[in-house]
Specification:
single chain, mainly beta, 7-stranded mixed sheet, 56% strand
């Protein structure tokens, strides 16, 4: 059982920046990867970024070059630095974990979600 607590969402103007944080607790030994999905009204939930325990990262094409994911293993926390934000980045962002031994698309735990709103 892993619990995730997200923070860092908010309202910004286009071109601004935000940093999301996701802190994990509980059975952290079971975590292989962490990252964020996002969901906007009327759209499918989509993977934004992820990072494995070995430090391998992946990003949605729409955020490459603007977003950067990192991790602090000592704090069991991952960070998503979001720069050059666009109105189309507006969504609820959900932190997730992927368990050791599971497929990459298999979600172990979800965070509560944090709202990111970018005004034009």
């Amino acid at each position: 059982q892993v619990q995730l607590v997200e923070s860092g969402g908010g309202l910004v103007q286009a071109g601004g920046s935000l940093r999301l944080s996701c802190a994990a607790s509980g059975s952290i030994f079971s975590i292989n990867a962490m990252g964020w999905y996002r969901q906007a009204p009327g759209k499918q939930r989509e993977l934004v970024a992820g990072i494995t325990r070995r430090g391998m990262t992946n990003y949605a094409d729409s955020v490459k070059g603007r977003f950067s994911i990192s991790r602090d293993n000592a704090k069991n926390t991952v960070y998503l630095q979001m720069n050059s934000l666009k109105p189309e980045d507006t969504a609820v962002y959900y932190c997730y974990t992927n368990r050791v031994g599971a497929g990459l698309a298999e979600i172990g735990s979800w965070g509560q979600g944090t709202q990111v709103t970018v005004s034009s």
